[in-house]
Amino acid sequence: MGCSPSTLLSHNNPDGDDAHHATDTQLSGAGTALAASGGGGGEKESSLFFCIKLRRSRPLRRCSQQNGGGDGSAGSGGTGSAINGDDLLGHGNMCNQALLNPAQTKNEADYDKICSGKKDSIVTVAALGNFTHTVVRRATGSTGTSGTTSSGGASKPEKRKSSIALTPEDESIEVYLRSLMDVKFPTVLPPNPQLKALLVFHKSDNICEVVTEACHRQQLDVTVARTKEGALDTLTNTNEEFYHLIIIDARSTKHLDAEYIARSIRHTNGHHFTTIIAVVKKSFFEKDDVLIALLDAGVNRCVPETTNLSMCNIELKQILHSIVRPHNVMSTQQALYTALHRLKEVILITDNHLRIQYANRAAERLLNMRLDEIISKPLADIFISDVSTIMIHGRKNKEFDEILTVRRKGQEDVAMHVRVIPVACIGRTPTHYVFNLDVPGSHGDFVATLPQAREAPRGSQHSIRRGSVDVRSVASDGLRRTSLAKLTSLPLEAPITKENCSPDEARLIDKVMEFLKREGLYSPQMKEIRTDDPIATDLIGALLTGPSLYSSRRSSNDSIIRVGGRQSTCMPAKMKATPHIMELLEESLSWEFDIFKLEEITEKRPLLYLGMEMFRRFNVFATLNIDENVCKSWLAVIEANYHANNSYHNSTHAADVMQATGCFLTQLAAKDMGMDHTDEAIALIAAAAHDVDHPGRSSAFLCNSRNTLALLYNDLCVLESHHASITFRLTLSDDKVNIFKNLDTESYKSVRSVVIDMILATEMTRHFEHLAKFVSIFGSDEEPKDIVQSEEESSILIRRMMIKVADVSNPSRQPSYCIEWARRIAEEYFTQTDEEKAKTLPIVMPMFDRNTCSIPKSQIGFIEYIIQDMMHAWDSFIDMPQLVTYMQINYSQWKKFEEQGVHTLADVKSKQHSLSVKKSAK
Ligand SMILES: Nc1ncnc2c1ncn2[C@@H]1O[C@@H]2COP(=O)(O)O[C@H]2[C@H]1O
């Protein structure tokens, strides 16, 4: 046995005695992984780590990662065993492994001494990063070689007795133990600098003094803050400041708000794994809710105040041992997973039944599938070759190394060099297999050179400047692509100009303008509508202008609108997914999906069926940690609260928006811009619920008719506020439909705020503001570094734009669907006008009279003023040229209809009929 790579997936018991843990291989294995990544510089490279295998009864051998192990049995060849700590001990040798920084090793570890071959020598060597200590002790008590602290290791070890047989006079004993503690966790290289503690106490009373003294006894580097601002400043202001442990005085809320401080720390970058302790009054433990509040805020543990130094010391020791150290390890592992995820090489990890459990980004790219399509897949599905020999090798703890053919979704198969390492998290039989795939002969770059046809630019912010399809070649209907220059120059001018100022000042003004645009301080005006186009004026005016326009008109107290108070209790969600429905839903992520067919074959319950399909495809059940039946009931309740008698704003529209959202999420993921699972779930939920309980009348109508909703929301964003509000009222009304019930308080809050934000973004009066912000960020010619925009701010803009586009994507659907949507919305508008007339209410859109209105004209205006720029911007960002293509085709079609004198609903219906007859004749 030599130095063996170990598993990332193993679960070591963090407790237990020190001597035992010194034999753990996890650290050494991971260390070799790092050594490998160090690039094989041999002993000259001080960043490399060597494994030293120490045996009780045989001379010590030293091996580097490069030569594959002391006795050569566990190299990269085919005879290696499953990587397992116990295995190293399993041959009757008392074998320890540890890491040595080679530079230190040469000077400090006396190999000859270690290799003296004395039978009773238990030797442990630990060297950890810049806190390098090599301590070599013999259990007999005679002095071994002790190490020194390298640069950066400022620890002053305290003398103490060891629980194992070490000489009491040894000066490095504390350091030794500390290093030893670190090697016992399944980690690579836990950050092991001087442990730092921040004490947040508003004054230095005796409790604070005892805590401070205890920290000093544990050799913590202590900083004290007296106010919450001071504490938070320390975390954010100082360069790369971090603390392993933060102790907050939570005895009284008068001086310090511990809950607030803890929450803020958790939200500070880089402090997810900081251990937060709250010092509380003894009586505190009687108040369960206070305890929960602190824990919810991110506190790891509450400890009672004490003036007893030794009690405090013991408590602190336990905290360091059982919370701080595992946190340290977890943060290291997290970093490793991140690195693994970004590796150029393809890594897959399966369980012992060869079901895929983990795939890194390169694997997603190779397989041309997204992570959630890969996870849980049987390995046999991604290889054309027979994979049974992998198991056969694995059961014998042998590595596998062969050429296999990999299936790539929608792409040509490819022969890959596949190396498989069996690993055991527990026991000796492999529990997992780690796969490393590469093209034979290539040097890790193959995946990066895969056909880039569907490749998107990488990075967190994606500009829409990159070339998109030349839409002029797609349609020759006179509709011209609006240039991005035009988009970015939406009428956002402020009353200052750049004329007569220096270039520097002009640049500054540009920056300020850019900022102002993004902050929405300047609401862009809509494009000037041609006065000879009264239908467009009516429609666009109604969509983009607030209710004030109508308030001066006549009003009535009377309205037939009854909103809310519909189906709010849980209803049994009966679903009968017939083969027909199932077959149709197979296409549910296609832009050509037939939502009207689904409406028909589900007997007007498309949202339930499509919703379940989307939730399943995007793993929403797992993301929300919720039972499928709860999701089913939720969808059923939401669907029941859409008004089936609305011709447009019914559950088919909701399903359509959800379907479009699913397409966009898929495309974002395919372009390497994918959202995380929670954001995907939120987007789908918001889409499903975004128009729930829509009365089939506009907000202006509700204001004019003094509807209670308009009164409730002060005429502002009446409908959207109502959709968001009722979504949550319905969801929380019954545990059986509460899809959020398993979220913790923080997650629920953030999910809620994003759902609300997305629903409110569908409000059309802010259409150009949202569009302008989106374009100013993603269509900017500046590099993202010049744009002050956090990742979160960017994703807010993307989410808003996504739901907006989905909401009004009907002119970008294939022609027959586009016409049907136009017919439905026109019917709804006409019904509103009918009612306004009947009740002598102000008429919001007088041109939308069923006897006179030209539907093609309304669609031409809608596309020209609302849809066109938005689709170009979105297509340029997400790369879905079909959005623009269909829009162009539909626009031409409406123009033709207009020329042919097609105006009314009856005309459009007859056109629809003749089109469908033509289609079926083909
Ligand atoms: N094809 C269309 N023609 C005219 N107006 C539309 C069309 N599609 C959507 N809309 C309007 O755009 C609005 C977007 O928000 P709502 O769904 O609340 O209401 C929608 C309709 O009023």
From TrEMBL:
Boundaries of every PAS domain copy: 332-383
EC class (word): hydrolase
Q: Where is the composition biased (Polar residues)?
A: 1-13
From start to end residue, where is composition biased (Low complexity)? 139-155
Task: Please state every residue range assigned to the domain named PDEase.
Answer: 567-901
Pathway(s) it belongs to:
Purine metabolism; 3',5'-cyclic AMP degradation; AMP from 3',5'-cyclic AMP: step 1/1
Region described as Disordered: 1-24, 61-85, 139-165
Q: Does the keyword DNA repair apply?
A: no
Give the EC number(s) under which this enzyme is classified: 3.1.4.53
Q: Look up the record and name the cofactor or cofactors this protein needs.
A: a divalent metal cation
InterPro entries recorded for this chain? HD/PDEase_dom, PAS, PAS-like_dom_sf, PAS_fold, PDE8-like_REC_N, PDEase, PDEase_catalytic_dom, PDEase_catalytic_dom_sf
**Sorted alphabetically, which Pfam families does this protein's record hold?**
PAS, PDE8A_N, PDEase_I
The record's keywords, sorted A to Z, are: cAMP, Hydrolase, Metal-binding
Q: Where is the composition biased (Gly residues)?
A: 67-80
Q: Which family does it belong to?
A: Belongs to the cyclic nucleotide phosphodiesterase family. PDE8 subfamily.
Q: Which PANTHER family match?
A: CYCLIC NUCLEOTIDE PHOSPHODIESTERASE (PTHR11347)
The protein, known as:
3',5'-cyclic-AMP phosphodiesterase
The record's gene field reads: LOC105227734
